[in-house]
Automatic annotation (TrEMBL):
GO BP term, pick one: ribosomal large subunit biogenesis
Gene source species: Tetrapyrgos nigripes
Superkingdom of origin: Eukaryota
Positions with biased composition (Basic and acidic residues): 28-49, 85-94
Region (Disordered): 1-140
UniProt KW keywords: Methyltransferase, Nucleus, rRNA processing, S-adenosyl-L-methionine, Transferase
Record-level GO cellular component terms: nucleolus
Protein name: Ribosomal RNA-processing protein 8
Any one Gene Ontology molecular-function term assigned to this protein's record: rRNA (adenine) methyltransferase activity
Taxonomic lineage of the native organism: Eukaryota, Fungi, Dikarya, Basidiomycota, Agaricomycotina
Length: 387
């Protein structure tokens, strides 16, 4: 029995002939064609190797640049390897990601002194619209801060000053004094911001009063009500004048703590019932309100000014021009408490100046006084614009 013979299977003796239905018959390649293909492959391989190694031995082919009129090289490999370029890019990114080195205090001041590209718009409606902090007078807490940190701190200080300022204008003097007693830093923060704000004003009422009062007799007694840090006293006392300074909080030896809307601690009395007089026991020649008619009960401080002034004494008022909705109504209110207008100055775009003279008045009942003192809304609160 033959090998692989299985019962039931029939294996033909000869090879199976190729089907006649084949679509394409391959012609056996001749020896010359085979050698030609091998030679062509060798030539192409040699060209590819020379191109990759850059040793072509001939001139580089160049293609023209139609726009620039120059020729561009087709050299596929740059002078530096791609790996080295990737390393250079990585090193550059590391350098960029490093934090900026801290500058010295002198370098920061020099940088801040340079003018900005965009000038800030000035508004003439009120001097209390933009808060700027002078770096030369920065507190110790700002030393060592970066430029960005310093700018952020100035913004926070400005917002704090604006909040305190608006609160003082919209509350009465009792509430303002209570807040300052509970938060001792409020008074100093407010007046620190106020001093910085003064530097951006075109004129300063305090300087005006120091200049004008320096021409008065040396025996003149001046009461500065709502004095702040007593700048008027600092300017006039060295000239031999007497300046009595009062505010809600005393932060230096020039200031006496007092609520000027309730009682100024100075002698003086009002007219008695049934008579018209200028009162008795007064010692003050001039009373000044320099941007200090604050709080909703400010008319009471004007009444106190009349009480402590000598007959024919002077009342000087400087207020932000934008606070007045009706100048004549304001003048009428002050006059009703025993004053006569001597002059007013509205030429300044920021401030309005008044000067009154104390005159005798009739005795007024409590009901009449209540009607007069309730007109505090004649002066609008000094509010800051949000930026």
């Amino acid at each position: 029995m033959p090998l692989f013979e299985v019962p039931g299977w029939i294996v033909p003796d000869g090879p199976v002939a190729e089907s006649s239905n084949s679509r394409k018959r391959k012609r056996p390649a001749t020896e010359s064609e085979t050698s030609l293909k091998l030679h062509s492959a060798e030539v192409n391989l040699e060209k590819l190797v020379k191109k990759l190694t850059g040793n072509g031995g001939g001139k580089e082919r160049e293609r023209p640049n139609k726009k620039a009129g120059k020729t561009l090289s087709k050299d596929p490999l740059p002078s530096r390897s791609r790996k080295q370029k990737r390393d250079d890019v990585a090193d550059k990114k590391k350098t960029i990601s490093h934090p900026m080195p801290l500058k010295s205090a002198s370098e920061r001041r020099d940088a801040a002194a340079r003018p900005s590209k965009r000038a800030k718009t000035k508004h003439e409606s009120s001097p209390f619209e933009e808060i700027q902090v002078d770096e030369e007078e920065e507190p110790a807490a700002s030393v060592g801060l970066t430029s960005l940190q310093r700018s952020m701190k100035q913004s926070l200080d400005g917002a704090r000053f604006r909040l305190i300022n608006e609160t003082l204008y919209k509350a009465d003097s009792h509430e303002a004094q209570r807040m300052m007693q509970e938060d001792p830093d409020m008074f100093s923060e407010y007046h620190t911001g106020f001093r910085h704000q003064v530097q951006s004003w075109p004129t300063n009422p305090v300087e005006h009063y120091v200049s004008s009062l320096s021409k008065y007799p040396s025996k003149t007694v001046v009461a500065d009500l709502g004095c702040g840090d007593a700048a008027i006293a600092r300017g006039l006392i060295p000239n031999g004048m007497t300046v009595l300074s009062y505010d809600l909080v005393s932060n230096n030896s020039f200031v006496v703590e007092a609520d000027i809307c309730t009682c100024v601690p100075l002698p003086g009395g009002e007219a008695k019932e049934g008579e018209k007089s200028a009162g008795t026991g007064h010692v003050v020649d001039v009373v000044i309100f320099s941007l200090s008619l604050m709080g909703t009960n400010w008319p009471s401080s004007v009444r106190e000014a009349w009480r402590i002034l000598k007959p024919d004494g002077e009342l000087k008022i400087a207020e932000v021009a934008s606070r007045f909705s009706d100048l004549n109504a304001f003048i009428a209110l002050v006059s009703s408490m025993g004053f006569k207008l001597k002059f007013k100055d509205t030429s300044n775009t920021h401030f309005t100046l008044f000067e009154f003279k104390k005159v005798a008045r009739k005795f007024m009942e409590a009901e009449k006084w209540s009607s007069i003192l309730s007109q505090g809304d004649l002066l609008k609160p000094c509010e800051y614009k949000r930026r």
